[in-house]
Structures are given as structure tokens and as C-alpha cells.
Records
---
Amino acid sequence: MQHNPTDQTLVLIKPDALKNSLTGYVLSLLSEFHTGLRFAGVKVVHVNRMLAEEHYAEHRGKVFYASLIDYIEGRLHYTDDAWKRRVIALMYQGPDAIKKIRDIAGPTNPLNARDKRPGCIRSLGTLAPIKDEAGNTLGERMDNLIHASANEADAEREIKLWFRPNDIPPAMQPFATTESDEHYYYRESKLFTSHEPGSACILAPGDIAWKTDFEALQLICKGKQAACTVEAVVAKYLINEKWEEE
Ligand code: AMP
């Protein structure tokens, strides 16, 4: 059974929430009792650079981008203990999932959140100055504790970026899947269908992938333009893998 794509959303409990031990509080506010939503996927993720950059691709080039990437990777809240750098990724499902979660999250900017929606999750967030190497202030980063998909298209892109189909119970998988009939390997922004030294295996025959990912891999292998970058497909297969390109 497949669910209506309007009915799911991605939530990330970000490193500032983990550092401040707010995970349980956030999960309580988002519980089925409060929202009527069910969680369909849960994952503890050590966020690597590829995943961070794909998740925040729309902010590339903005003044806060570099700081935002460091933030979601956990580098700013766990400066020494790299092993503590984590995000909790959740997929919630049910009627009006996107709106219900965003209402409880509140406005993006924690100052607006405190002003407009006291008591919402992000009202507990902070603003942090962003400085250049000379110490000049360039702007502010919003440490706002959770990410919540903004709309249907973002929810689909983000759920497919953070979860493989098999991370979600079959009856709750919201998007079409397909079975791989080939091996796919990745190294340095390139795909291979046979093993190359230093490459990571992304899919093997029989593995289940999102249909759109599989179609993108096939196009990229033929040197054609795909609907997304190779990294958008590959990143989820490298989640929590020891393999990482520097
Ligand atoms: P959004 O894509 O709107 O969910 O924003 C993603 C994250 O980027 C937010 O949660 C903030 O941490 C950060 N962000 C968005 N807009 C700004 C901004 N104008 N200044 C600083 N940080 C921002």
C-alpha cells in the first residue's frame, strides 16, 4: 500500500537539541497523542559533508551557508568529541503531516518564534554570530533545534535523501521503489557498474531503491542529465558508513 505524498514529512532533531538534552521533549511534543501522526522512520545519523551539502543545497552561496553546514554536521556543538556528532532523522506520516509539524516547530528564527509562538519548539533556540577570519560579524546563524520539511516537494526530496526504502516498513513506504539489477559503485562524483579501487558499493542486484534514484543512476551512467545530482542519490547509502572521501 502506498500513502498519499502529501501525508509525510521529514524532521531532523539537530545537534543543538541533542547537546541540550531536548530530544525527549521534542519527541513528546511530536507524539501521536499531540499530532495524530505516526512515525514511519527513525535513524541516528552521523552527518557527513555530502549529506549536509545535499540537504541544504538551496542555501549554497548564502552568507550563512558554511556555518549552517558546520552546524548540521555537529562540529559547532561537539567541537572535540567527534563521535557525539549526530542528528536524529524522523519521518512522520498522517493527515496534514507537514503543517502539523511546522506549527509545533514554529518560525525558523528563534527570536520570531519567542515573539510570535511562545512555547513552540524553536522558541527554545538561539542565534549565533557568524564571523569571518578577522572576527568581523557577517551575519547570524539560527540554531533552531529542529528541521521540518516546508512543502510536499521538499518532503519527498528530503525523505528520499535521508532514508532508503528498507529503513521504512513496507506498508509505510510513501514512494515507488524498484529492485536493482546491477551493481553501482561511487567514487569522486562518478558512478561505475563494476568495482573500482577506492569506490563504495551503493547498490547490488536485488537491493531495493527509490524508483527515482534508480532512474537517476541509470541516466548518469549513460552520461545523460538526471533530475538530481549523483550525490543526492549516493549520500543515503553512505550514511553511517566508515567510507568517506576527504
Ligand atoms: P530552511 O531551509 O528555511 O529550513 O532553513 C534551514 C536552516 O538554515 C534554518 O533552520 C536555519 O538554521 C538556517 N537559515 C535559514 N535562513 C537563514 C538566514 N536568513 N540566516 C541564517 N540562517 C538561516
---
Amino acid sequence: MTVKEKNVILWVIVPCYNEEKVLPETYGLFLDELTLLISKGKVSDESRILFVNDGSSDETWEIIKRLSAQDKHFIGISQSRNRGHQNAVLAGLMEAVDRTDITISIDCDGQDDISAMEEMVDKYYEGNEIVYGVRNKRETDSFFKRNTARFFYWFLNKMGAEVVYDHADYRLVSNRVLKEFENYKEVNLFLRGLFPLVGFNSTKVYYDRNERIAGESHYPLKKMMGLAFDGVTSLSVKPIQMITGIGAIVSLAGFIGIIWVIISSIAGTVVSGWPSTMCIVLFLGGVQLLSIGIIGQYVGKIYLETKQRPRYIISERTYENKGSSRTDKSGCNEKADNKE
Ligand code: UDP
Ligand code: MG
């Protein structure tokens, strides 16, 4: 191993939302893994575990602050309110830009096998800039969760959003990728669909998914469907293409219908045509409404993108923020927040 490799700084990015039951169980596991990597000389002692408190309403931030005071390897940032898992991971990643060589994002609930990090780091040394953690099997998930998740990936891929199958947000990303990723300014975030777009050498690491150590999932069916929908409409224009296709077929059918109406009226059998007219009107009304609805989703997203709101706002840090230039770049200074 070369000297350069020993100096690789790793930040493990851990989003936490109301995890007071989970953190006391898992923080030790994260530290054990990091200590192992440091002792093997794979990452430097300057490596850190960054907890991102996503506006928790429980003791989570207090726990993070306590941990940061206990061990220099723990650091934390806190968002000014709950913004969702994707934005919490983003806040952590952007915090790490230019302070690290590599980052690994992982959930805090111990479901993703923490010991897979070593293999991820090894893959980085083999020349990969992104390493996707992929679940081997879903036996520990409930029947319902397993099948909704399966549907989720199927739906995304069918709709034209490229995602790595069974990869959630357990992922190693190099600083080089992160710097490029900074230029993806979208507000509707779907990280696992965006990183494949950044490119560079990538590979996968397989791991077994465990059960949540404590607490409950924050991803019920409704949120999962929301995420799938965000994934599709943020990454793909396939729904619009499909509407165009359906529109063409319906128009053709309508055209044939008009010819039929003209012929019938010439033949003098118009009065009895009321039911068929109603059917056509209702059918077209339905299709149009559906189409407008989906197009409306895109318009809504354009609206949000044009606002260019800050995507995250960090209200506190357990350490001194030296490179404040990044805070300015993302437009998230606390004064602006207070004004609202
Ligand atoms: N999380 C977050 N903000 C949220 C919801 C969740 O930061 O609004 C974090 C949560 O603390 C966990 C990770 O995102 O570390 C994944 O959430 P969860 O385990 O509830 O989802 P699941 O594993 O069931 O899909
Ligand atoms: Mg989980």
C-alpha cells in the first residue's frame, strides 16, 4: 500500500430522523468499522462519521452532540427542519465536498451491512469512483415491503429512470464525482438515479440486508410511491412520450368516429346515437384529464426548479465550519432563513 492510499479521508454520511432508539445501538458499529479501516491503513485517522440530523423532534440531535464530544471521529450537522431522507444525504455529501477523498452514505438503522464498507473502499482502490451497495436478498423484509420494493424498481426502469436494481442509498462516492454532482442543481432529488448520470467508473458490492435494529421505518407505502413518482418525473420524459402515443391513437379513433357520425347523419339515424356520443365524450374527457394531470406534474416541477430554493439549510455544526464558501454557494445562510 502506498503512502497516498493511507491518507485517504473517508466520511461516512448517516442521515438520522427521529432515531433516538436506533443511534445508541448503531453508533458503535459505525465506529468499529471506521476504526478497523483506519487500523488496516485503508483510510486515514482524519476520517469521520458525519451524522445529519434531519430536523428530528426527539433526542437525536442531543445524542449526536454527545457523541461528537466523546470521540473526534464523530461529527454532526443538523438541518433547520425535516426535509426528507434524500435532502439529508445531500446535505451530508455537499458538506463533504473537498474535505474528503471518499464518502459512503448509509442509513443509520443498521439495515445495510456496515461491514461491506471495507469492500467498497477496496473497490475504490481498484479504480472505481462510485461503488453501489446492492442488497443480496430481501428475506428479512416483510412480504409487503419486498413486493412493493420490487414493483418500485420495475416501475422506475419501465418508465425510463435508470436505477441500479436493489440499490438504495448505500454508496461510496469519490470527491471527484461529488464535485461534478454539485452541478446537478435540481430540487426534486432522487440520488440513486442521479449518480449513474454523473458517470465515471463504477461497480457494485453485494450485501445482506438486515432488519431494522430498533424504531420504525419512515418509508411507508405512500412515501415510497411518492419517491417512485419523483424518480420518474425527475429523471425521465417517458410519461410525456406515452401521452403523446396515447394521444395519437385516441385522435385516430376520434377521426374514425367523426367519419362514422357524418355517415350516420347522412343515413338519417342520428337520434339513436346519444349513448355512443356520451361514451366518446366521457372517454375523451377521461384521457384528457389524465394527460393534463401528468403534464401538470412536470409543470409543477419546472415551477419548483425555477424558484431555486436552497435544497438544505444547516443550522448547527458540532465543529467549526472553515470552508464557508460552500455555504454561500448553495445560498443557505441562516439569516436568509430567519427572514422568511
Ligand atoms: N430519514 C431521514 N429523513 C426522513 C426520513 C428518514 O433522514 O425524513 C433517514 C432515517 O433516519 C434512516 C434513513 O433515512 O437513516 C432511511 O429511513 P428508514 O430506515 O425509515 O427507511 P427504510 O429503510 O424503511 O426504507
Ligand atoms: Mg431502514
---
Amino acid sequence: MDYNYLAELLFPNITTLPAEFEEKYPPRILPEGAKVTRFAPSPTGFVHFGSLFPVLVSERLAHQSGGVFYLRIEDTDSKREVVGAETDIIRAYAAFGIAFDEGVTLDGEHGDYGPYRQSERTHIYQTYAKQLVREGKAYPCFCTAEELDAIRQEQESIKAVTGYYGPWAKYRDAGIKEIEALLKDGEPFVLRFRSEGSSARKIKFKDLVRGSIEITENDIDHVLLKSDGVPTYHFAHAVDDHLMRTTHVVRGEEWLSSLPFHLQLFSALGFKPPKYLHIAQLMKKEGDSKKKLSKRDNSAALSYYRGAGYISECVVEYVMTLLNSNYEEWRMANPDADLDEFKFSVGKMSASGSLFDFDKLNDVSKNTLSRLSAEKVYSYALDYAQEFDPSFAQVLKSDPDYAKRILAIGRGGKKPRKDLTVMRDVKPYMSFFYDEYFALETDYPEGFDKKDIRDALSRFIDAFDIADTQEVWFEKIKEISSELGFCPEVKLYKKNPTAYKGHVGDVCMFLRIAITGRTNSPDIYEVMQILGADRVKARIFAEIQRLAG
Ligand code: GLU
């Protein structure tokens, strides 16, 4: 067979040669050891939370090594494509602080290795396809859907493995005359790969996460170009990963079964394959067993987390704890360090994958939030409220300094307060600071005389001076306690409780309830300082009146 002749017959309009693209997209000039990684989603309209794992690994590997991380849109399957999905993908990851150096972006494409949308690269794929035909490594197949179905039925009836391979591959050895005649009749064809693999042999292969694995060779003559000339994902991605000079491919383990075919493709095309990291599917606990985090779970969509009020930093932090077994230990030793300072290591990734757990996410979220500055929490809270609670956003914006002072309570020390897990917690946490939300949410505990409570509040008002230091302020409360028959020292009270009506802590509690409406609040002195003298007095007066009524 004259393969050159066949190649011209099949692709008369393709005049470019692979060498031209090799020259147009030369090896990248990067520092020694720099990794080039990519995220290559199909725009199907659903951004899975699990995708954050390969994305973060790819991003870390590239950026930690001075390399490049790019976004390629794999849109060769127009049937699955959803309008707007591409923008959604870019926005979804941007919201998690993940930036692509190259590829498709909201304002066009960046980078010298594009186009980065597969739908715009057809002539490149066809150039390589034509070359494979020249080398006898690909051939046209004119089978109709009915013929393929008949082959499958026959295979099933004799219990043979189904598929287009070896003796079943009807057009694998078709003669040039037959091909010419079919083409002349305008019969559509797909281009198939001529596999030299055998199901009786295995390939040995080293995955950077899973270690050495053996997989059965591919003997199927898979489709490279569909009848409209559009490539299949398999073919397109091999050409792209090569021409975009990808060094490391991080993707889900569901692609592992295609790997023997992918490696065959790289070899047939004369490309050096990238290194692979196949990540296990994200599982979640269900009772005592584990199950896949499926699309039907609310929490499977990346967008769910923002709506639920998780901030991107916390989610990323959580994912990092799952991705690298030593991350949590590092974080404990370096509570304030930037994530960039952590040395991400492929060797610390678990081959068996990760188990998603909301309790753990909440825990990480709480800790991460407690370490952020009030300024940052304010901006996250405002951002969230603007989308999900506009009236609270107005309140936050009405006096940013006031809001930041509230959020600064208990921050910055060795043991920061941990009141917030998600942004939805911010409003209930702060609400009593705002008159429009303030309400008495609790009653005074039983066993105290209303008159004593009223008296304590009145005397406090008489003595109150916002300029008092915490010490002076507390001395005054102790005095009031003594005057009303409450013990000024808790220890003393405990020795002889029947001698008193209560102790100084109870008096503080009266104040706390009157001022915050709750039994639990941050340090009440600090709360008063932020509320200011007028609000403190107004609330206490109102409470005295209520108690008198
Ligand atoms: N386009 C494929 C997907 O949607 C990417 C597979 C790969 O990363 O090679 O998952």
C-alpha cells in the first residue's frame, strides 16, 4: 500500500506538515525542573468540587517550580457542550484564587501555545492525522453504525471481547482500490488508529502517585477523527499535550484505563509522553461505607461552597490537608504562613484518594477564619452579604470601621476566638452590635430577684464611664456586687454560697444580657467599648424599664 498516496487521497486540503507546528510551538524556555501543567475540562456545564484536587495539584506543581499552568478547553464533543460553561469554569476557579498563566481567559486568550480551544485546532490535528496515515499508523474506516452493531452482536454471540480490533477491524487491511471507490461514492469515513497492541500483553508504567502499575495493552483500533474531521478527545489531547509542551498531567483515575491507548498514541506520533498523576475519585462517608461524591449531591458542585458561605481560602486549605499528608502538621507549625511557603510534594499524596468530610471542612474553616485579619473577614463577609443578604451588606457598609472593630475582637493572639465557620455565621455573631438587629434572646436564669437585677443595672449606669480602663471598670462592678449582697470574689463565694445572693460573675451576666441580649458574648468590657457609651446606656435604661414593667 502506498500510504503517501492514501494520505493525499484522504486529506487533499491539508498542506501543513507536523514540522511546521513543532517549530511554531518550540520547547519552552523555562528554568531547570520547571513543570508545565494544564487543566483541560470539557465545557459540560457542571464544575465538580472534586476537580479542585487535580487543579490545585497542577497549579502547585507549576507555580512551585517556576513553570506554567494553563487552561485548555476540550470542546470537541459539541453534543455535550453547554453555552456559557466556559465562562463558568473560569469564574469558578478564579473564585478560589486559582489563576491560569495561559490559555482561555475571560478577556480572550493568553500565551504563545494557542489556540487553547480544541475546536479551533482542527487543522493541527488533521496535519498529525495525515502524518499517521503516511506512516501506515492510521486508516479510514467506512463502517456504518449498523455494521458496527452487527460486529458487536456477532462478538457477543460467540462471547468474544467486543470492539473494533484485529480480525474484527473490517477496514484495517482494505485495499487502495476499495478505499478509492468508497471515497468516490462520497461514503463518510472515520480515521482509526492501527493498534499494534495485544490484549495478551501488559504494559508497565509508572504513575507518580500510584507507583508502578501494569495494564493490559490496547488492541482496539480507536477512532482518531470522526467523520466530520473533528478529533476524539484521545487524539486531540495527545497532540495538545505535546505541542503545548506539557510535562505533567494530573487527572482523575477514570482516565487510567485509556492510558495504554494514550501511550501508544504518543509513541506513534513520535512524542515524549508527559509524566502522569492519576488521582483517585473523591469519596464521601455514608454511614459506615464510602461512596462517590456524585453530581446528585448538592455538595458536589463547586458553586455550592460559596452559597453555603465557605470562603475560598478555607476550602483550599481543607483540600490541601487532604492532598498532602504533612500539610496539617506544617500549618500547625506555621499558622500565619502563606500557602505558597508550603512545599507541596507528590510523594505525600495518597494513592487511595481522599474522603470528603464536612466536619473536617468545618473544623479547618473555623481555624483558618480565626487566623485572618478583621479587614479580610470584613471583606469576605461583605462580599457574601452583597450576594445573599443585601440588607446586611448595607449595614456592614454603613460604618466599615465599626464592623471591623467588632470582627477584631479576640483576633491576632495565640488563641484566637473561633466564632465563625462560614460567612452565614457573621450576621448572627455580629447582630447585637446593631440596634436594628438587637433583641433580647434569652431570659435571666432562675433564682435571681428581678429587683436585684434592676438595682445592679441602675448602679452600673450611675458609675459607668466609657473611659474607664478594664481594671477600674471591674472594680466598680465588684463594688456594686458587694453593695447588693453579691460576693465580689467567685472563690470566696464558693466557700460559703449561702451567705450571698450570688457573685460578681452573676452581676456581669446581668449586664451581658441587658447589653447583648445573650448569655454568651465576647468579653463584655470590649463589647461595651465598641458599642459606645450612648448605646450601652440606652440598652441598660430600656432593660431597667422593662424589668420594672
Ligand atoms: N477533557 C477531559 C475531561 O473532561 C480531560 C482529561 C485529561 O485531563 O486528560 O475530564
---
Amino acid sequence: MYKIRVSGSSEYDVVIEPGCLAESGEILRDEVGGEKALIVSDANVAALYLDVLTGSLREAGYETSELVLPAGEETKDIDNYIFLLNILAEREFRGSDLIIALGGGVVGDLVGFAAATFKRGMNCIQIPTSLIAAVDSSVGGKNAINLPTAKNQVGTIRNPKMVICDPECMKTLTEEALQEGYAETIKYGILNGYEIIDELRTAIATQDYSETIRQAVTIKRDIVEMDENDESFRQYLNLGHLIGHAIEANSEYGISHGQAVARGLVLEARFCALAGYIEMSTYLEIRSLLEEFGFELSETYNAAELIPYILRDKRIHNGEIRLLIPEHIGECSMRTVSTTRLEDLVRLI
Ligand code: GLY
């Protein structure tokens, strides 16, 4: 069984192994314990994988219950959060029992936040079934719910007790859903080097994402271990997200996170090149990488529409932001700029 150990305010393993969903009960019994398990999933994922997970947990002696929520970003709201807390309370869950997120980032974020706050913290298990959750959101402990004003406004950073990732689950994803994960994987390539991009090409050809997920989690682990609380080094993981989040919000979330990040990676590289921070050839290479993996980048964006969202970025402090500069594939740096300078740079897109 392939495990990646993540250290920090607490330590946990990320298990990545084809077929391990059916072994989850045994793994959790041996490594985590607890008596009861509440599995939270969405309707699409539950139809595919809930029975396998429930069967495995019951066989391992857990008393299980299930909550299936509608699929989609709207599920990650304060009403479902309170609904979830009440279920945990009514069913007399203890901190040592398990709440399991079976699904993608929406379920993972909602469950992570409920687990972080119920009884000041209970055991949270992440079982990502989408590529984007497997390579990114299931690892690192960030969780959040949305407010009507914007996404991810209320949350914490609290590590899961374990992440169990079965790459076989990627086989039921549509091309569109897989692409969400490609954007974050290419981001890791820009941060860390060509290896993961080459591996992604192999994964697409063979439909086996095990090694891509292992490499992505290792890169993320190495970054998060240096700065779990997102005060400095972890902000490298936001490459492409400054403009990406603005595109997502400006579209009223009609453009998905992965699609927005893909455009953000390209547009941030573009203004860095036009400002003379990086070579034009690096921008062109980033653009052609995204195109190679199927992203449609012909749409143009109006800087004036994006700037108000960009100026709400959580990373702006005292009128300054540390801008991420993709120097080359495999090397990024940070440069502190004022928000006035940032606005000028965004106008270059
Ligand atoms: N997804 C970015 C982070 O975990 O910091």
C-alpha cells in the first residue's frame, strides 16, 4: 500500500492505491479506530461508490450512517453545515468517531469544516473521488463553506486524520471533470518541473492516474510542511489563482475552478512577460502546455471587470501582495507589489 506521510500540527497518511476504497474499513480500523462513521457524499458519487465504502466499513465493525447531499457548489453552504452538525449531535458522535467525505472538493470542504468545529474537532477522513480533489483539496487541511457574498468565506485549516485515495475512482470521471484536475496538476509542473507533466501525459494515455496523484501529493506535502498556516511558502500553491478566482467570481461561478485556474495560469504569465518579469517564451510555453491538455484559451478578458475581484484577494495585506512569478517551468519566485502596481499589471492582460 503506497502511503505519503504529511507532518505538521498533526501527522497523517495519504494512502494512494488502486482498489483501496474496498479496503477502507480495514485501513481505518487499524490506523484510526473509532466506533461510528458518518459518510457524507453527493448524489452522483454515492450512486457509484457508497455501497462499496459502507460495506467495507461494516465488515470492519463500524456502525455506519449516510448523508447524501445534492451535487454542486450550492451544497457547501451554512444551512448544510448546520444540518450536518445537528446530525452529528443527534446521533451522539464523539470526537474519536469518523466523519468521512466521499466525493470531490465540495463535500470535502463541507465535511472538513464540520469536523474541525464539531466538539472542537473530530476525526475527519477524506476520500477524494475527483482528480482535482485527489491532487489538491483533500490534502493540506484547508476547508471552508460559502457565504451568499462569496466562496470560501468561513473555514479553518485543520488536518484530516487520513486521506484514502483510490485512483480507480478516476475511471468514471468525464473528460470535463478530469480537466479540472489537469489545471492544478499543470500548476504543480510550473512550480516543480516537467516530471509531473510528463507523468500526466502517460496517465491520460493509460487512464491510470496513480503516479500523477502520488507526485502531486508529494509536491503539495513538501510545500504545506514548510508553511501549514498559509503565511508564506504555501502561497506558491496559489499560482494562477489570483486571476483564476476573479474569473470564477466574475462569471458568477459559471466557469469552473479548474477552467478558471487554467486561464489564470496563462494570464498571470502573460502580464509577467509583458511587464518584463519573465521571458515571453516562458509565457508562450505555459500557454501551449494548457492548450495541449485541451484548455480553450481564445476568450479575452476585460481587466476592469476583474480588478474589483482581484482587489478582494485574501493575500492582500496593507496595500501589498506577494505576486507569484513563473520564472521558468519548475521555478517560481515571489515579488511584493502594491495594489496600484497590481492593477497596472492586470491591465496588461
Ligand atoms: N489549494 C491550495 C492550498 O491548499 O493551499
